[in-house]
Amino acid sequence: MGKTAYLVLENGKTFRGERFGAEGEMTAEVVFTTGMTGYLETLTDRSYYGQIVVQTFPLIGNYGVIPADFESDVIGPSAYIVKHWCQAPSNFRSEGSLDTFFKERGVIGLAEIDTRTLTKTIREAGVMNGIITDDPAGVDFQALKGYRIEGAVKASSTKEQYTVRPEGPVTKRIALLDFGQKENILRELVSRGAEVTVCPCNATAEKIGTLDVDGIVLSNGPGDPAENVEIIENLKEICKLNIPLFGICLGHQLLALAHGGRTEKLKYGHRGANQPVKNRLNGRVFISSQNHGYAVVSESIDPEKGEELFVNVNDGTCEGMRYFCCPAFSVQFHPEACGGPLDTGSLFDEFFAMMG
Ligand SMILES: NC(=O)CC[C@H](N)C(=O)O
Predict the structure, then answer these.
(1) Residue from 249, 318, 326, 338 carrying the catalytic annotation
(2) Is 215 annotated as a binding residue?
(3) Number of folded domains that form the chain
């Protein structure tokens, strides 16, 4: 049995649990994901920077730790909450248990939490901050309420530009702006024969112009999209290069902001592997993998500049845009999946077709 620790939410609600992984205290925004599998992809997704992730699926860790499934070389979430964690994982690819993995990486895990009640609380009251602590009576609620995720993209992006080449012949050259990218975006591009130059988040139009690329991809990433003022200004110039552009998740949000649009924070976001999205051009519905707390307000974009391409079937929020003023389209969900369904992977093919 692990040592007792607590999750205290900013509304005062307290949940008792048992520690695994690293010791210590952690304050962050508490969000839930409904993915039944794919916990390794979730744990290594840097878009969870500054967040404590709650898994609604009650048993996590049963297939152990499989590095080949990682979406980055760091743990994205600040801490991790589950109902049960599996102490005897079994899988031919497994290289260890969650407990050891968390201890090695200094990440706090909390198990035996009533994740159903916790999820309902967040769903009804909206996303809020929380602290994992051994001393629930000593929580400073003012500090807890004041916690904000800041500087997340800069902290997550690569500092140095680097290039990844395909094994076979190079079909296209792509610049990938790394805002905290998931590795599978890179894999999807390289597997289609692209030579991909991964650029730091603040790469300018001038810099991208010198790379002589056929296309530009804007990656996913953490935090409030509107906070990235410098990147949004750069994107306005990048759009003027008139090179085909594909934005994913944070990339989609930043592209909308660069087109004069607005983003809003959703009550509790979309995180999981079964979010239905509808293509407004042909009415087809796809099941998608998602992890976002903000959404583009599609009406805030000048209809002369762009239109909504995908909409969420559950709540009607914007899931994709296409633009008329430059060769660009973007999606809020994850066509690269990992975890989750591969239904929308063909969007990478559409992007390659766009590059000619
Ligand atoms: N996965 C992402 O790119 C997330 C985008 C943004 N940080 C949000 O929460 O909405």
Answers:
(1) 249
(2) no
(3) 2
- Same-domain status, 127 and 144: yes
Reduced to 3 states, what is the DSSP secondary structure of residue 355?
Answer: coil
User: Is there an atom of ligand 1 within 6 Å of 251 CB?
Assistant: no
Last-in-domain residue among 126, 149, 172: 149
Whether residues 143 and 181 fall in one domain: no
- With a pLDDT cut of 70, the percent of the chain lying above it is 100
Is 183 an annotated catalytic residue?
no
**pLDDT tens, 95-119?**
999 999 999 999 999 999 999 999 9
- Give residue 333 CA to ligand 1 midpoint distance, Å: 9
List the structure tokens of 199.
Answer: 């650029």
Instruction: Give the range of the structural domain holding residue 224, as residue numbers without chain letter.
Output: 153-354
Co-location of 123 and 256 in the same domain: no
CATH number of the domain encompassing residue 75: 3.50.30.20
Residue 61 shares a structural domain with residue 93: yes
CA–centroid distance, residue 36 to ligand 1 (Å): 20
Helix H or strand E segment including 111: strand 108-111
Is residue 133 located within the same domain as residue 194? no
Torsion on CA atoms 120, 126, 132, 133, rounded to nearest 10: -100
Q: Are 248 and 330 in contact (CB under 8 A)?
A: yes
pLDDT tens, residue by residue, 111-158: 999 999 999 999 999 999 999 999 999 999 999 999 999 999 999 999
For ligand 1, whether the C-beta of 50 sits within 6 Å is no
Residue 324 Cα distances to 46, 186, 245, angstroms: 31, 26, 12
- pLDDT tens, position by position, 244-255: 999 999 999 999
